[in-house]
Amino acid sequence: MTSHVRLVHRTHYRYDRPVTLGVQTIRLRPMADCRTPVLSYALAVSPAGASLSWARDWAGNTAAHVQFGQQVSTFEIMVDLVVDMTPYNPRDGLPDGAFWQADGPEEQAYTLPTACTQETAAFLDACLPDLPEEPVARFVALNHMIAARIRYERRMEPGVLPPEETLRRACGSCRDTAWLMVVLARQLGYSARFVSGYLLQPVQEGGHETLSADLHAWAQVLLPGLGWLGFDTTSGRLAAEGHVPLAVASVPADAAPVTGLLDCCKATLDVQMDVCHLLDMDEAAHIRTPAVARV
Question: What is the rounded distance in angstroms from the CA atom of residue 20 to the CA atom of residue 69?
Answer without folding.
Answer: 9
